[in-house]
Design goal:
By secondary structure, the chain is of the alpha/beta class. The protein contains 24 helices and 29 strands. Strand 25 and strand 26 form a beta hairpin. Helix 1 runs parallel beside helix 2 and helix 14 runs parallel beside helix 16. It binds adenosine-5'-diphosphate and iron/sulfur cluster.
Length: 687
């Protein structure tokens, strides 16, 4: 094998008393598993260690009930009783020679304490971050000293649980230490407020006390947000951000640096296409400290990683999302199989699962979150158990994933696609403004298909009942997708909009196909309230088309709150001159006049327009499936026919990939087995 051009990434790095075997560092990230699902958590982190990450971290670990993040499911280290669950993770990580890190967290006024019901604490009395009419109380000196004692106790318990690296955390607006540092959250006049030295006092104490407690065997990491991306209204890396690094430069064993808040740290590719986008903010840190520095920014390309190390920007390649999209990223780089890396598309579906308080999921990696409950591993799948062939109809995300996994299992697969290109809905969506990185869902899978000799691909091949019968294959996966409806049925109404036939109506695909011809203002009616209508509005206005955005929702694309994008979406539309009309559903259409109904009062107003883009609901393309199932009793008895992805039930691209994967995994299982053994569950102990 030729010399690995990425060998620099496999240098060991000293972090205080411990050494990581390489530069791949999975920084702390939420996963919706935490203290509620410790086995799932351990298995998920364990897969990352198996995939070659040198350091694998937890998510935020609450150190005390006064920092209770419910309803979010994070990690907990309130007392010794949490040690056994955390040990599951450290053991799973150590099994593969990686170091385990824990992010000790007290969230101050970022915790609402909905579960513990203890009043939240913060440097100043102020509203809690969560939308709940509750305030945190100002910490007294006694509170500060108790808080330091909790942190120290948590550090000792972390060491007892087997962690190698323990964090002091001052980032994301989610930690009391950071709240003390930031002047707009700390107006104290005692020795913990006022000058930067004073505001930094608590952090300095935490670093020193953590080192005294466990520094003999554990590395002390400091996670610090150098910039809030608020300009002069917040922390800036050229000013106090840098001053903090100067004042504490040699205090931690490791600097983990990023930007705040979470929506800035985990920017989506839609609004931040640049890989390594945080480097301009954080790369100064290495010039100030001799300690190793880790940074993030959706780092996926090994060339960029080596460049950052060689340039002296970073010592360790930090990753949350790239490690979620591909837990095996380090070993693929080590084995010089970089073409096999599943590249993060920057969609933040992973983030949304934390916001919905369910186990993590990923568009690119359907096995994420399923390591324990279904026993899935992104690189290993059980081999075939019969010699039967499989036919997959449709090459959207569901069909592509299903075909790839069936082929990985060793089955002979035929993949038929009616269009001239593979990719289904991803081809359309990734052609829209800001979504080009989504194409990786298709590119990564098509690349794999091309390497395999057991998948035959037929493009421009629309399959009918007769053609399917002619092929004579018994196992059929119908991944025929869905189509946007144009009658106005959506969240707000279950009957077609009256008069919809009297006006020009476009589906999302049709309006883009016609974008060069459209001269008049277009109304986009968003009664889906997901992401697509907002993307279309942005896309069309960038093409010079005037857009009026009408929605029954109270903001544009409310679902994108879960991916940390909503404010950016609304700002983009305002900036591009889109007229936004919220809280209105379409009641009826007459003579190019749309009658809008206020969702609160029912009051009617009118809006003139020549054409409407309907983004409301989708209809499953299930006619071939229905024909196969219903119209042919002979076929029905002999064949194993499955409908998957959007054809079964329209959803996210992530859902389609997942359902394609699930179908390939469950290929030979009897329906009853699939229903019975859905997945393992973690049951609360009744002891
Ligand atoms: P999903 O998200 O479930 O994967 P998509 O809508 O992205 O669904 O993809 C469905 C794909 O199936 C489209 O590319 C479409 O052209 C293709 N397709 C639909 N019906 C047929 C058919 N009868 N024969 C072959 N391909 C089909
Ligand atoms: Fe990346 Fe999207 Fe997967 Fe998150 S869900 S890791 S953003 S591909």
């Amino acid at each position: 094998m030729k010399k690995n051009p990425y060998s620099r990434l496999f240098d060991p790095v000293q972090i205080g008393p411990v050494v990581t075997k390489n530069r791949f560092y999975q920084v702390p990230h939420c996963c919706g598993m935490g203290h509620l699902r410790p086995k799932a958590h351990a298995a998920m982190r364990g897969i990352k260690a198996k995939g070659g990450w040198g350091v694998v971290s937890t998510e935020e670990a609450e150190i005390h009930p006064s920092s209770d993040l419910a309803p979010y499911v994070e990690q907990r280290i309130w007392d010794k009783k949490d040690i056994p669950a955390l040990q599951l993770m450290t053991e799973a990580v150590h099994e593969h020679g990686a170091l385990a890190a824990i992010e000790l967290t007290h969230s101050g006024h970022n915790s609402t304490n909905l579960f513990s019901r203890i009043p939240a604490i913060s440097p100043d009395a102020q509203a809690v971050n969560f939308l709940y009419p509750k305030q945190a109380r100002r910490m007294t000196k006694k509170d500060i000293s108790e808080f330091r004692a909790w942190h120290k106790k948590a550090a000792l318990n972390a060491k007892a649980a087997g962690f190698d690296i323990v964090y002091v955390y001052a980032g994301h607006g989610m930690s009391v230490a950071q709240q003390f540092i930031l002047p707009n959250m700390n107006s104290r006049s005692d020795e913990y407020g006022g000058s930067l030295e004073n505001r930094l006092r608590l952090t300095r104490e935490l670093l020193e006390e953590t080192r005294d407690a466990i520094g003999d065997t554990c590395g002390i990491a400091f996670r610090f947000a150098v910039d809030e991306l608020k300009g002069k209204d917040g922390m800036q890396f050229q000013e106090e951000g840098q001053a903090v690094v100067e004042l504490l430069s040699e205090h931690p064993d490791l600097w983990d640096v990023n930007v705040s808040d979470w929506s800035n740290d985990s920017q989506t590719s839609r609004f931040q296409p640049e890989e390594g986008y945080q480097m301009p903010y954080v790369e100064f840190v290495k010039s100030i400290t001799t300690k190793p520095v880790v940074g993030v920014g959706r780092l996926t390309s090994p060339d960029l990683m080596v460049k950052l190390v060689e340039k002296g920007s970073l010592d360790l390649i930090g990753a949350a999302r790239p490690s979620i999209a591909d837990p095996y990223l380090p070993s693929k780089i080590k084995d010089q199989k970089t073409d096999q890396i599943k590249e993060c598309i920057g969609c933040n579906i992973c983030v949304s699962s934390d916001n919905f308080t369910v186990p993590i999921r990923c568009t690119q990696n359907p096995t994420m979150g399923e390591e324990w409950r279904r026993g899935w591993d992104p690189e290993t799948i059980s081999p075939k158990i019969t010699d039967q062939k499989a036919l997959v109809v449709g090459s959207g995300p569901a069909g592509l994933e299903c075909a790839v996994q069936l082929a990985r299992r060793g089955y002979q697969v035929i993949l038929a696609e009616s269009k001239s290109q593979l990719g289904g809905r991803v081809l359309f969506e990734s052609s829209l403004k800001g979504l080009s990185a989504w194409k990786r869902v298709v590119d990564n899978r098509v690349h794999e298909i091309l390497q395999k000799s057991n998948i035959e691909v037929y493009k421009d091949s629309k399959l009918s009942l007769e053609l399917v019968k002619e092929l004579g294959i018994n196992n059929i996966f119908l991944a025929t997708g869905s189509s946007w409806r144009k009658d106005g049925i959506g969240r707000s109404r279950r009957a077609p909009i009256k008069g919809v036939d009297g006006i020009k109506v476009y589906s999302p695909e049709e309006v883009v196909e016609n974008e060069k011809k459209i001269k008049d203002t277009v109304v986009i009616y968003d009664d889906e309230q997901g992401y697509l209508a907002g993307v279309l509005a942005d896309h069309l206005s960038a093409k010079g088309i005037k857009v009026v955005f009408i929605t029954p929702a109270s903001v544009v694309s409310p679902w994108t709150d879960s991916t940390l994008e909503q404010k950016r979406v609304q700002r983009a539309l305002i900036d591009s001159g889109v007229k936004i009309i919220c809280n209105q559903s379409i009641n009826k259409i007459e003579d190019e006049t749309v009658f809008l109904e206020c969702v609160y009062t029912g009051n009617i107003s009118k809006h003139e327009c020549k054409s409407i883009v309907m983004v409301t609901e989708r209809i499953s393309n299930n006619s071939l499936y229905e024909n196969l199932i219903n119209n042919n009793s002979e076929v029905k008895t002999k064949q194993n026919i499955k409908i998957i992805g959007d054809a079964e039930a329209p959803g996210l691209i992530a859902d389609a990939v997942y359902l394609g994967h699930l179908a390939a995994q469950n290929f030979e299982a009897e329906e009853a087995d699939i229903q019975r053994g859905i997945f393992m569950r973690e049951m609360p102990s009744l002891k």
